Amino acid sequence: MQNGVVLILLSVALTPVGDALSKDVGANMPPILVVFARYLVAGAIAGMLATIWRVPLAIPRDVRVPLILQSALVIGAMTMLIIALSKVPLALAVGGFLVAPIVAVVIATLAFGETLTPARAIGAMLSFLGALLILRPTGGLETGVLIAIGGGVLLGLFLALAGRNRLGLHPIVALMSQCLIGAAMLTPFALLHISEFDPSMVFHIAALGSLTASTHFLTVAAYQRSAAAVLAPFFYFNLVIALAIGFFWFNEVPKITALCGLSLIAFGGVLAVLPARQPRNRSRFSRLWAKPVTVGRRHLMPRPGPLGKR
């Protein structure tokens, strides 16, 4: 569990940086073109790393359909997020996107039978309430927020499936496959806007692709080491980093309610990873008061159950 938590924390620390860069690039290019370029570059980087590290690129036939489904979900989610970033402030778009962990926990618990301890449930809810407090919804939801929430639902489905269907692929192969499959899916839409490509954004797109490769690699590796219900609350730290970036990059000043929300997010995340209380193993001590069983002239102690074996 600990390895997965460290990896997901690194991923969520880098993700808002990529979102802010996407927002900047999206101001000069159509969002769909940004997503296409982002994942094409990330897939190319992953392919080069796989070649350098000599990682086998063969994908077993029985995992190809789940891989395509997961790729479609994550690309759809990120497309909706980048569209939302072009319509609303960074923190607002990221906050709406953070329904993903709740969706992942619900699916992993109800559909896949993962353990949801009271501490994890309370921690997830506290983090969710903290996100709501930061977003401070008033009146009706903006179109950009609704798009971000829709992307969060798709991402939650992806996270739940990624935690359940461990495809057995090397993380770098999974990353390359998802990015290139996603770029292929977006190609027809990107070609419609190819004339609007801004050559001055090449460096930004390269940096964006590198960040995408890093965050996706870390996320896939994390979900190969820990359950979805354990990792889900940590995604709320996306909002913590997004608020900081909003302050330094876009001059957005957090208010008292935002600081209270951050406290709830941090506390909920810590609470959610507290180790579950294990039932006490009494079989080791049962022999202290167990009475011998007489069989003929022999006295036998009761045989311990499986938990009593050393």
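^ that was protein a. below is b, sequence first then the tokens
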Amino acid sequence: MGTAGIVLAAGTSTRMGENKVLLRVGGEALVRRAVRAALEGGLEPVVVVLGHEASRVGAELAGLPCRIVSNPAYASGMNTSLEAGLGALPGETTSAVVLLADMPFVDAAMVRSLLVQGGESDAPLVVSRYGGVMAPPTLYRRSLFAELRHREGEGRGREVVRLHEAEAAFVDFPPQALLDVDVAEDFERAKARLAGREAR
């Protein structure tokens, strides 16, 4: 069984003031960009967890071979979406990469790098590192799924990374690839950077 993908796209975007995963960068919505990176990076199946404005967000994914899962408890935090995504994976899934829909510089090549490292290592997780900062996407082996689903508190994925950091394998990416779109200034910075990259 290949490595699955879980794209978390259910949040309410309270800091942005509008649904950030619907914002368009590089000609497409952030959520579609993230799902495309997962698919083109070789993840299968790709599960997309929706919640806030699920019908609008789902419409942006038309034509992509992904599985959409609804999280009715999305307002209770990201942990509920992670649990919903893990629960939707096939029983034979051996590992999964968790991606966030608001990180526009995570691309297919980065996903493939995680898969390569995962294939070369027996580590229980493979963590992306941006100039020393650990952040998604992260590959988790099945041995950690129960811990991801049942650990209390917010930031469950981050907490599992912290607890197992000594056992982890790492893939290093440029620090500038670490940008999550939380507020309007982040969005403007992402658009400007993408425009500059595409102009070169």
